[in-house]
Amino acid sequence: MGRKCPGRKCQAAKVARKCPILAGPKNVRVANVRAANVRDANVGKIFGYLVWAATWADWTTCLDRNSALLQSTIKCTQLHGQTTGIEGAMKDLMAVGKKMFGFTRKCMSSKAGKCEKSLKQFKMSLKATTLKGRLAMILGNGEGADIHFLVGEGAEKERIGAHKAVLILASGVFKAMFRFDQQNSNFGSVDNPVEVPDVEAAALKVMLHFIYLDGLSGLNGDNAMALLYAATKYNIDELVEPCLQFPIPTLRNVFLAYALATLLQLEDFAYKCSAYIDKNADSLIRSDDFLQIDQKTLCEILERDQLQICGEISIWKAALRWADCQCLQNGHECSAENRRAALGPALFQIRFPLFQPTKFSEIIVPSGILTMEEELGVYQFYCHPNFQGLFPLQFPCHGRASDRHHATIVLNIEKFSEFAREIVGSERSSEAAFVGGMPWKIRATIKMAKQSTGKCLDLYLWCCATSVEEGEGDENWSRKCSAIFRIIGQGNGTEDFTRKFDDQIFNSEICNLGWSEFVTLSADKVALAIDVTVK
């Protein structure tokens, strides 16, 4: 025997205890929802009807058949809530909830065949009173879809239905595509869908949502670039700009975004992506995102002069990781020959002459990737930089931006008075700037002054060379550092507070340079600047 349907009162009480807004029809009131606005209250009523209807179901039979409908109805309510005004959507949603309630009660006393018939009648009875509501409904339930797309590749394939009339109005590409294939009556049917392997399913869904409802609620960093590609492919110009305005740091893979921008000749967007890559290169080239780029993009990245990295050896290790990944994907052994073949022209964008001679001999030569002539060319450069001789140098030898020996680092503090009142140990730090092949930051910390009950400002120039600590560079490094500390922007004719330091900084747990002092400022918005020279 199957399980008996839970008692009406008992089940309703359980639902009400779990969530006050999900009570039965008699108890679904605005007061129970305790919402601050009309929308919250009405949505609470709607879902109250839906869940109350579900509690009437026989948990062993009817609920299984009803669950798909419940999910479809909830999806419909979400579409309504996103795309229509409050006044226009509430009537439709209340009607959905009430019909769901009535359908479930009717289904309880029906056999399986009658229940399926009632389910069909319920779907057909759903109506919307606004244009957006009607479009949202047919987009959500696929009713009347006369074109189907099979989107994605491999296990990610998904069939998505749409309506030719709506798509034709949005894009001339769709119009031409449908006109060209109109002689084939089976074109785009459920059994013969249009295959679109180069577009992601999530991106196509967001594009359809925009075409039907002018909405961008599904746009995010994960699908922005896939959506940009789809919008460009189908010539949906209104959708291109929102994708280009999406914040660069939130994109799923900035390298692929740069490659796509280059492919589509979006120069401004490509510049934004490349600038972000330059600024964060030291961490980005260590990420898995770097392994997803193609050889052409790899060449373009490695040849950039503005990459902020901890020495050229970081480039070498990143390129080697990329080559190994390519070998594994192609089922090849990670041998020196296969690595060199995978890198191709990208190998000649690595600036081997910038390596320390000892590191070149200990790391690069044993790898076996360079030929003897290429190695001799580098050794000859070490001895006679301007002499070509028998072994011409085949690699770039000019430094990158991170190899500069002077820079000004700035840390802006908007409300210095609030910062000063924070607890001891609170700190602010600037973005890293690469000088002498090392990343440097300004670190400002609130500390307790010695032999005093007061607090003081701890201002330091800090070398945050994590890659050196990981053994990617010279573990015994040291730098001759000259720094001028300045507190600027006090206004009222007040001179900038300055102090100069000259010292030797070496690899240790504390590799910084600075001082602690009481500071009284006449302005609440100040800038801490350090002019640093590293040799």
UniProtKB/TrEMBL annotation:
Q: Name one Pfam family in it.
A: MATH_2
Alphabetically ordered keywords of this record: Ubl conjugation pathway
UniProt pathway: Protein modification; protein ubiquitination
Q: Which SMART domains does the record associate with it? A: BACK, BTB
Q: Which residues form the BTB domain?
A: 145-212
Recorded hits in PROSITE patterns, A to Z, give:
BTB
Coiled coil residues, start to end: none
The name this protein carries in UniProt is BTB domain-containing protein
